[in-house]
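Thread: "does anyone have the structure for this chain?"

Original post by V.I.:
We have the sequence but no experimental structure in hand. Need at least a predicted one for the grant figures.
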Amino acid sequence: MNIKKTAFAQRVSQNSKNYFPRDLFDLEAAGAFLESMHAMFGLDTLMTDRHGAILMVHGAFDGFVPDVKNKPGNKIRVRERTVCHIYARYDNVAQEKHDEVKTLLDAYIKTLEGFSEKSYLASEQAVYIDELEQQVEKDAYQVKYSEQNDPLTGVLNRNYFMSRMRQLEEREGVPTAVICVNINDWKFFDDRFGEEESDRLVITVADILRTEAREAGFDKAVIGRIEGDVFNVLLPDASESAAAAYCESIQRACDCFEDERLVPSIAVGCVMRTNVEESYKDVLSDAEYAMLENKFEIKNTPGYRQKIEKAINKS
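Reply from O.Q.:
Generated one for you, tokens below.
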């Protein structure tokens, strides 16, 4: 079964209830024909929408109140749904012209119905095609996003981060700040509170990395999750002082984060790539070493362990 064809068929069978006569045909042109029928043959007509609201009158209908439920007149239907009604009075039509005028009105109604049907289908097809195109674009974006981004945090995954790093290397742009970020004691939270809370810790840190980069004006920042608790950040065209300020801001944001359980603490290593001959791989290795030095310093700071374990004490 073709799902798209079925969906379109269901749409076409149902959506005609959302259309009004003005959506399906030219009311002015329709009125001009009925006016001509009145002038030439004395045929009185009154047109209403599906609910009985009067759209136009040609002839004598003083005091007439349409009852579209019990006395609907001539129905104009699209996909088995009534879109309007035409009431006709032959009181002023010559007897010998009666059948001729009725035949002419019936033909007009069939023509109006046929035109409305085509107009309805054309409109629905246009909307459906537009929706399909939007869905195709959305699906393509989602596929591309899933190929490039870490599903948990939304930052770049390892493979795409490495690809972006190679692109920057080929572009030979300097300076670039190369930053390694590692979550301190991530396993501690994973062991004690489980995967859900440790994932929340990773997401929290990723959000901080993005937010601080945006607030610092690093629109070209490349942020990737390299391993479970490791992130790398590239700041193209950043000065050494600006890169240092960013590193301070992400650590400060983690230290200031308040939560009943989570205590996001990160070790950060930052090395500047200032020579196009330098390999990003080598610079990143230096940044990792700097991060490990920072980690050792942080974890030996008085009060660090008590702060990390505050969640257990509250539990």
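V.I.: this helps a lot. The first strand starts at residue 44 and ends at 49.
O.Q.: and Residues 29 and 203 are 62 Å apart (CA to CA).
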